[in-house]
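Inputs:
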Amino acid sequence: MKEKIKGIENEISVFDINNVESLEKFRIHFLGSKNCIKDLFAELKSVPNEEKKEIGQLMNALRTSAQEKFDSSKIRLENSASDDTKIDLSRPADQIEIGSRHPLSLVRSEIIEIFNRIGFTVSEGPEIEDDWHNFSALNFPPEHPARDMQDTFFIEKGETEMALRTHTSSVQVRVMENEKPPIRTISPGRVYRNEAISARAHCFFHQVEGLYIDKDVSFADLKQTLLYFAQEMFGEKAQIRLRPSYFPFTEPSAEVDVSCTICNSKGCNVCKYTGWLEILGCGMVDPNVLEASNIDSKAFSGFAFGMGVERIAQLKYRVNDLRLYSENDVRFLKQFSSGM
Ligand code: DAH
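Outputs:
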């Protein structure tokens, strides 16, 4: 019997408790409901009476030493665990990374600010648009080939034809339907076209539409407004030129170039040695468009323009690959300071 007690005593002392699992194993083996010391107590019956007292004491000591080892190991493990998570208050704090605004947001804000200064408000419309606002009210007849100018993502064909808007010109219709002239507003937003993605084309991009409707608005007002915009955006030396063009919703229509800010119009590969860069489309709002939105085309006239935000950003930041704007690569995005 004494041999057995010695054996267990030895087991207790060499048992290596170095983690929670081994602590639990120890507990089950020496202190659990079916532990090995209990088994010894069961054998006490067969011990001669004169030895019972001594053996009993030895077994009690065995139980105590198992309990003590368990308690001290538990405390030791708990302390070492909390050592790992102790906070060193003297350590310098992790640096807080300050994000930067997306280049397209920066350019859009700048465009909005420039037009705010001359009294243009901001209005917005839905990206999922019906045929009326995206095409019909803008003077695109049902089978008009001009609809092919824009490859549309249709969502529902049939009676309620819905599509992702192909331009923000749809918002000018919504504004004219809801407000009375004088109207002076710009509409920034995302537009969608069914195009293969490449450096020069994308299936979604951003535009800012402009609309000014009042009595006696003239082409000269349009030209001066756009010159003001170009000089605010690209510097006071910037010049513009208008080339005749065609859009169903404006008559006459023009495309506007700004003098190349990269080579000062001397000619470079960005402006393809012409000294000019195309930045937007514009024109006098077609009377049909005014009438479609219940504005009296005899009493009121107006101009409209539409520009691509990526295009302006490309000229401002010399980013030539359109895909970079939507790839969310932090190395690209963090190069643009917000200036805020
Ligand atoms: N909506 C045209 C486009 O997406 C841009 C545009 C051209 C808008 C002429 C206008 C405009 O308001 O007058 O290409």
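Remarks. The chain has two domains: 2-83, 103-333. Residues 167, 169, 209, 247, 250, 281-283, 304-306 surround 3,4-dihydroxyphenylalanine (CB under 6 Å).
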